[in-house]
Specification:
The chain is mainly alpha-helical and about 130 residues long. It is built from 6 helices and no strands. The relative contact order is 0.16.
């Protein structure tokens, strides 16, 4: 991969991350659809991790959606809190795809919990952007 292509691909993933984060916020605040907001939040975090992977490896991001796996591939040194956040968001993502017959995921995805996850996601994205600029 050329340096120019790498830069474009990193920007592609960073832009996608920001767009999906904005969508997650809008869906949570305006539509009050918290499960769907968390779904977009997952996409946002996934894309920032892929930006970092491309930056570090000079290769295309893998076709993987598991956040903890992407974090391991990235080589980022995450705190336990950051890693636990990724696991929680990843778990929500799976439950969004395959809700149980009682739709328990909708009971857990409250306004308060979604706001907490949005805050943590913003912190994680900003931290990862800082790591990218080093």
């Amino acid at each position: 991969m050329t340096k120019t292509n790498k830069k474009k691909l990193v920007e592609y993933w960073k832009t996608g991350s920001e767009l999906d984060y904005s969508s997650a916020e809008a869906i949570a605040v305006k539509a009050k659809q918290y499960v769907q907001a968390i779904f977009f939040l997952h996409l946002s975090v996934e894309k920032i991790l892929k930006a970092y992977i491309v930056a570090q490896t000079s290769d295309h991001a893998p076709y993987v959606h598991n956040l903890s796996h992407l974090a391991k591939l990235s080589g980022l040194e995450l705190s336990k809190e950051q890693f636990d956040f990724l696991i929680e968001v990843n778990d929500f993502n799976m439950r969004c795809h395959y809700p149980d017959e009682n739709f328990e995921i909708y009971k857990k995805a409250t306004a308060k919990h979604t706001k907490k996850l949005l805050t943590k996601a913003r912190e994680f994205i900003d931290w990862t952007l800082e790591q990218l600029s080093k």
